[in-house]
Amino acid sequence: MSDLAIKTVNLTKRYSGLWSKQPVDAVKNLNLEVHRGEIFGFLGPNGAGKTTTIKVLLGIIYPTEGEAYVLGKPAGDPKNHYKISYLPENPYFYDFMTGREILTFYAKLFGIPEPDRSKRVNELLDRVGLSRAADQPLRTYSKGMQQRIGLAQCLLNDPDLLILDEPTAGLDPIAHIDIRDMILDLRDQGKTLFISSHQLSDVERVCDRVAILNRGVMVQLGRIEELLAGGHVEVIADKVPDNVVEPIRQLGGKVSLHDGRLIVEQPDNGSVDRVIDIVRAAGGHIISVKPYRRSLEDLFVETIQGGRNV
């Protein structure tokens, strides 16, 4: 498992039912592999089992069945504590302390000595864009600033693995971009990032692979480009005669023709050029050709609403 940052084998976490005697599997037979140096998206609706899985990986709770390994050791192994960082969705800090004070406090807990401690704190404050606000109380920080100081705290111990829960939730557009760029930069440094998020556009932009959970079961897993394959191209044309409809349909496209205006949704399989040739040969005028790529949101909705494999 030297090339794996996270590995689970038939991981199951079962809870006793609150209102009935029937137990509930929050996570069921989860088999997951996260490679070192990748950004991995861990997705699912509320109640899918994401937080339960993260708690197992951090050693906060124990699995009912199966196994979980982090950085080559059983989940929760004390030897990994200095190699892992976790940023919850709503990080809590002592709000009477300043940004510099809170980072210094945690740096002391990690055993970072002076003068390295002060240097590390200053570097991270600058890295997350909080140098000017370093000596302001945390209670004056905005949501975005709270996320930034939380990320700085996660980086104090220079971890090999970062587990981030909703790292861009509630941020303004500028903070969104800054955090996304920081996540990509951390991957370039060789870090592994395990991200749980409902911000699917962010996940699509930064993640190498994703897994989707539904009702405790993993229902999708793969590389972003593989999962999102299968887009289409929209062709709009004018002054098109009726006799083009059938030849285009034979190419697999969805065709609409009304008063000479043609709209075609054509699979992105190399047949678009043939559609254009047919239209032009019939005397039609091409108005636009627009590719439409399938989004991660499309895949997520199709998977969850369809209850695929659950």
State the order of secondary-structure elements, H for helix, E for strand.
Answer: EEEHEEEHHHEHEHEEHEHEEHEH
How much of the sequence lies in strands comes to 25-35%
Spans where pLDDT lies below 50 across 5 or more residues: none
**What is the number of strand segments?**
14
Shape: globular
- Any idea of the CATH class of the largest domain? Alpha Beta
For this structure, the CATH topology of the largest domain is: Rossmann fold
How much helix is in the residues?
Answer: 25-40%
Distance between the termini: 29 Å
User: What's the helix count?
Assistant: 10
Largest sheet at a glance?
6 strands, mixed
Structural class: alpha/beta
Q: State the CATH superfamily name of the largest domain.
A: P-loop containing nucleotide triphosphate hydrolases
Number of structural units classed as domains: 2
Gyration radius (Cα, Å) is: 25 Å
Strand order of the largest sheet: 6-7-8-3-9-10
CATH architectural group of the largest domain? 3-Layer(aba) Sandwich
Average pLDDT confidence is: 90
